[in-house]
Structures
1.
Amino acid sequence: MKIVLYLHLHQPWRLARFRYLDLGSGRPYFDDERNLEIFRRIAGKCYRPTLERLARAVDSHPEFRCSLSITGTWVEQAHRAAPDLLSRLRALVATGQVSLVGETYYHSLAFLLAPPELAEEVALQRQMLEQEFGATPKLLRMTELAFSDELARFAAQEGYLGMLAEGWEPLLRNASPNYRYSSHVAPNLAVLLRNYRLSDDVGFRFSSREWNEYPLTAEKYARWIAQSPGEMVGLFMDFETFGEHHPESSGILDFLSALPDAAARETGLGWASVEEASALRTVGFISAPTTITWADQNRDLGAWLGNDLQRSAFEAAKKVGVLVRQSGDPEAITAWRKLLTSDHFYYMYLGGHGADLGVHQYFSAYGSPYDAYANYMNALTDLRQRAIARIHR
Amino acid sequence: MVGWEFPPHHTGGLGVHSFELCRELTLMGHRVTFLTPFTGPFTEIPGVSFRYPGEPAPARSGSTPSSWPTAYDRPIDLGRPYPEAMVDYNGWVAALDGLTEVDVVHVHDWFGTVGAASLARRLGCPLVMTVHSTEYDRSLGHPWKEILDREQSGLDAADRVVAVSRHLKAQLVERYHVPADKVRVIYNAVRPPERLARLESPESVVLYLGRLAAMKGVDTFLRAGARVLRQLPDVLLVVAGEGPEYPRLLTLAAHLDIADRVLFLGKVNEEERSALLARSSVFVLPSIVEPFGIAALEAMAAGVPTIVSKTSGVAEVARDVFAVDFWDIEEFASRIAELLQYPTLRAIMGDRGRTEALREGWPERALETVGVYAELLAPGWVR
């Protein structure tokens, strides 16, 4: 049994309060200072200590593997707020034990737009990884772990070895997520699935005192994994799980440090990078006619496009995209792409998925979904006016 | 119940609250004697009897013809005390006879506190006082001492105090030194509107509806409106209500050069009110001080997207609104423009606001009030 640990590094460029009255004022859409301040805070609590723990794990356990996806917006902010994180990442990647995963540069909803937007954003991120870390991603993950047959086709066309996806029952039809699968529409493309039970034991439940398995020790967790049937277990989660979603006081960082030791003591338990896992034998085919994600209880796009506010904002963004491309203004294109980052739509969530509203509020940059929508629409309207002015010039 | 105004002739939230509370209490099987300094007419509610100074010498046995002066024949504005009449009214309340089977004396705001306290003492009943606003709020920090004293004596004498928001409760604890454990928060509510149809009109109407008093911040409404009009010249600002600020607001509208885009309607009746709400695109409650703000809840119940000031009591309970700092004219203007410009936002806030405003109503508030009575009465009092 191989542990496939995959962590996702992302921070969005959050918008400043951009009032309707600010239209045409030339004010910046994004609040750089606030974003960098948030980044610095999370770097102190999570990024830096977790990267230190990973470095130690790599040093002391040559069998240890970890795979990371890193968005362009995260790297941009790291350069300005905590550049030491980039050198730490470079050192990790250089060991060959840590590999990188491809995705969109802007953590965007580009996969719902007409080509060539998605291909361009994925290429941007790939170039960024090559430039910053000297490594080329071989596997692809889509924003919020979105997966569909269409995306599988895209990944195969772009030459990727595989994609990551949620190990969701409707997709598996009662099969186990703990194997390497292939895409039904692109048989050469590996599909690595997230074991959401074991992933959420760490991601969601670790610090919950109401959980009957509390406290979770590395030994207990390694034993669970070792005892699971299958050939690989996909532990896919946010990097911020370690030190941000669960504070250091919960013991989460020590848990991470202890995991390689605990795994070494279990017979038959090892580690695999996403590349190594994609080289495992395939046991079956995965078909996803509609998009599934790793979010909320429905695992659909409801978290970003589930209500009229979100859909109307996204439709408006699509239309502005046409104008922005036509304008040929590189700054406008960059601003537009930053506005496609999925987080902006997530903030407009109105509830309706039961307990998930709490999760949304935890991550929201606004007091209410209405604030999020109005602010977004103001920035988008301003961008639209800018693009139109440019076109008519 | 020692009250003040009562519908149909009421000017604010107090009259609405008294009416709805009386109605719900009688529906629960309680009987209410409502004392007021006004001669009426009163909107009839079965189970509620009205008493006022100078009432026609009644068939009530044992009551001597009143030597007290006649009550006012119409409501007067709060905050303009009539000291003598006030003393007289309290004397009349304290000495009132012909009352039987009283379980609790419940007084609203300051004007009847002294009389209510003596009445409760004489009858051996607990005293409950509901505070709808304080003199500090109404006077924007320039309180009339006579009124402060009456508020204080009511708060001191009351066995339980009801505040219409947490914000107001905090003020009672801080400024009047009322022990926090004596105060219960019971919010206002709104009755489901009979008319639900929304009227689409070519002109966007932005509405203020309420008294034209300094604490209401209506000048913010006009200034924000003027900012919106620079960008959206077809907007119509409607100010419905009357009050001492009217002349000043009229001058301000002229000064802002928006007089042709502002409609001052004066006082509106119930029917006009619902017609106005039905065709408004945005409702604004820009109050500097607002212990609760029923008007905002009414607008929400009518499906009108609503902007309130952060300090209002209604902002404590309503999530489906925009909440803005009362001094932030630019932000009020932006919120108005955003609601006018983004139809999806307007529709969703309108729909969800209506659901939220009607989730709980006066029956729940009356139950909470009875819960406060029950804290003070013998076990088993609640049927």
2.
Amino acid sequence: MIKLENVQKKYQDGYVALKEVNLECNSGEITVFIGPSGCGKTTTMKLINRLIQPSAGKVYVNGKDVSHIDPVELRRGIGYVIQSVGLFPHMNIANNIAVVPRLLNWEEERIAKRVDELLSVVGLDPETYRSRYPSELSGGQQQRVGVARALAAEPSVILMDEPFSALDPISREQLQDELIRLQKDIKKTIIFVTHDMDEALKIADKIVLMKDGAVVQQGTPEEILRHPANDFVKEFIGAKRLKQVQEIPTAEEVMIRKAVTAYPTRGLAASIKIMESRKVDSLIVVNENDKLLGYITIYDVLNQFKDENKRVGDIVKPFTHTVMPNTLLTQVIDIVDEYKLAYVPVVSENNTLLGLVTRGSLVGHMSDIYPSNGIGV
Amino acid sequence: MEKYAQVFVERWHDLYSALIEHIILSASAVLLGCLVAIPLGTFLAKTSIGWIRSLSFTIANIFQTIPSLALLAILIPLLGIGTTPAILALFLYSLMPILQNTYSGFQSIDPGIIEAAKAVGYSSSQRLFKIELPLAIRYIMSGVRLTTVYIISWATLATVIGAGGLGELIVGGLSVYDKPLIFASAVLAMVLALVVDFVLSLFEKKLTKRENSKQNFA
């Protein structure tokens, strides 16, 4: 776990980079620092491996105060990936990845094995790439090597400073996906700095939003999207994304419009015929003006079937719950769930039946907003 | 025409000893220059104290602008005549180009590489010898090559303060108007410069071999 307590950073020229930062990054999670440029996100990250010293406050890595650890030792135990990749151009790929294990005096045999293993992990064929030089690789491949170098000595903490920002969109997507996949296995404590909200929402377990050297809000992507702390956060997230999350559909958008109905004057035998032909087990009862009266079920009809004089109107039961067309879907779901309803009628203010929200229509709506895109199907 | 060829045979003994003197004179000056300018350039590239940097470059620049004949003359009252003041003068000339190239070599390193080297846990001396020097060496070597060629040609002037070398034969030849001797000495100085340049270029290639093997597949 990484913990920053009352951390401040003031430069000699009086510039205050960090005002007072308190935050925690959980072990085995990806914590994303995000904010506009100059907000102090990179500064905050560099405090962790002591590339920058705080003016005040404490930084703890796995419970230890880093100011008591020799910076060179500390850094060998923390992986580091930067935007400009920073591979050493005079060393081949294998030697670049082997840098930290060599500094830690691993045996050559173990290093060679680890290099091949890591090249496979980041999706590069060891045979092909081991002895190439960084300049022979594309930007995306170079950053894969950068990630491999950071993982080489199995650090528990990895710092990533806008690692994918300089890549083309396709490589960026790929590397993001692979980071998520990789993290499932390796479960490192990752600090990831970015200015790209889409990237943050995609990979973060926790987002720390910063502005002007202070933390504005921290929480899971879901929390931040649902409860942005202030206008700055809202603006930074962007109206479009907020709308996607916060614009909850209404009952009207989800309901089916063609409910199977019957008038109260219908006979019971006729109503069974309707149920049979429409393959339903109940009918919504409305009058000639489509005003909602109630419902009948197949069981009610069969119970009273012997009495030939009875009509639908005699056995109709009123609805205990109805919703308005503008009722939010979340409330509809609550009602359906709480009272174990198979469906709930949607009525206008003057009690005219407009449609039904059924369990089937809810599932249909969900498949519209969460398209599978072929994943897992 | 025959005379021009014969002089190499007849005067070979003189030419040979002058050539050796010339090599010693130039090599000493360049080596001294390297010993001073490369560490100094490294320091200047790394120091954050601005005025030391500008002061050093100004001083090195001033030496560079003094006409060589004048500099040699100035050194006579200070160090007398002979090889030592000549080497000193040539050394002063070698400072600026080596210093400048060393400094540029370090400046040319991508700051991302330096940051990465720090962050993976190289100590500052490991960083210097394993990362920064290997990356700056191409610049440093080209500075050394350039300087050496200059110094070999300027060393012919050092004869005016009795430093010997091929310059002595040229000046001697001038005084008795021995054109073949002047010609032979000048040719030897030229050939020396060309050969040394070639040898140093091979050395430079060897040092930067791994970097030169770059091919861009990207």
